[in-house]
TrEMBL record:
Phylogenetic classification of the source organism: Bacteria, Pseudomonadati, Campylobacterota, Epsilonproteobacteria, Campylobacterales
Pfam families: YgbA_NO
InterPro entries for this protein: Uncharacterised_YgbA (IPR020483)
Native source organism of the sequence: Campylobacter gastrosuis
Name listed for the protein in its UniProt record: Nitrous oxide-stimulated promoter family protein
Superkingdom of the organism of origin: Bacteria
Length: 120
């Protein structure tokens, strides 16, 4: 995995989990935080900013740890990975988050481009 790809993946992952937590856990106590991430021995390559409940924070940290240890030079989609590194329970949890946020972010992008189109 390249440095750029890693930074990209971190951004996407954080955004997806944040969207999910905003929708599902907005009423739980949440704290804003920011963490610095290392990549291949380089310190502070990128950072992740989030405001998550405890459960989602654990999921995010888990996913980030797996990501930085991904052995594939060209990272496959986790769903198609020949040797998935997620434990089953975490995988299920992430799949739920990805579906929820994927639909939501996909739709809002569509809506935005539709609005842009209508304004012309
Ligand atoms: Zn949450």
């Amino acid at each position: 995995m390249t440095r750029e790809k890693f930074i990209n993946e971190v951004t996407t992952l954080t955004k997806f989990i944040q969207t999910f937590c905003d929708d599902k856990h907005g009423d739980l106590s949440r704290q804003e935080s920011e963490i610095l991430l290392d990549f291949k021995g380089e310190n502070g390559v990128t950072s992740a900013k989030f405001c998550l409940c405890d459960e989602c924070k654990i999921t995010l940290f888990y996913a980030l740890a797996r990501l930085s240890e991904c052995p594939h030079e060209i990272k496959p989609r986790c769903r198609k990975c020949p040797n998935p590194c997620y434990e089953k329970e975490m995988y299920k949890k992430m799949a739920k988050i990805m579906v929820h946020s994927g639909v939501k972010l996909g739709l809002s992008k569509l809506k935005k481009s539709l609005l842009g189109y209508l304004k012309r």
